[in-house]
Specification:
Blueprint (H helix, E strand, L loop, with lengths): L18 E6 L5 E4 L9 E8 L5 E11 H8 L7 E6 L5 E5 H5 L2 E6 L2 E2 L9 E3 L14 E7 L9 H7 L3
Parallel strand pairs: 1-10
Antiparallel strand pairs: 1-2, 3-4, 4-7, 5-6, 5-10, 7-8, 7-9
Length: about 170
């Protein structure tokens, strides 16, 4: 397995006592601790991680909970159309149509080991569709906000990720 690139962990990423909030236009907002996820079935996703910076990490195996399971628990009104996934770094966020986000995996393991902080642990969003972009794989996920309309200024992932390419 080719390893993912390592980037500096922002100072404001604190993984102790981590929780994930599912907020916005949901019937039941959720605040989930890592232990809460033990009650959800897990799934494995395998694939290459192709980065726009020009490198590839081959044959990665991610394990976690499909986001659809969280949506099933929270309940989505018919007016919900998009999701905004926020990182605990306070800057990085990525928007998705809900049907695409629902197919993503919230990964807690990489290669059979707990996901370390350098690689986005305790939880990293791993899109599973063939048209995924590397910048959509949000590290240190802290919130999934469900929205009725496409977010604009709040979607920072592509801009931040592509600014790293020289």
């Amino acid at each position: 397995m080719t390893d993912l690139r390592r980037h500096r962990i922002p100072d404001n990423v604190k993984t102790g006592g981590w929780t994930l909030a599912v907020t916005g236009t949901v019937d039941t907002p959720l605040e989930l601790s890592r232990r809460s996820f033990d009650s959800y079935p897990t799934e494995t996703f395998e694939g290459d991680f192709v980065c726009d910076e020009g490198w590839v990490a081959e044959d990665l195996t991610w394990r976690g909970v499909r986001v659809k399971r969280l949506f099933d628990h929270a309940g989505l009104p018919e007016t919900s159309r998009y999701g905004l996934v926020r990182s605990m770094d306070g800057e990085y966020a990525c928007s998705f149509p809900l049907n695409r986000l629902a197919e993503s995996v919230l990964a807690f393991e990489l290669g059979g080991e707990p996901l370390d902080t350098e690689h986005g642990g305790p939880a990293r969003l791993v899109p599973t569709t063939d048209d995924r972009d590397c910048w959509e794989s949000v590290k240190w996920v802290s919130e999934i906000e469900v929205l009725e309309h496409v977010p604009t200024e709040a979607d920072t992932a592509k801009e931040i990720a592509l600014s790293r390419i020289e």
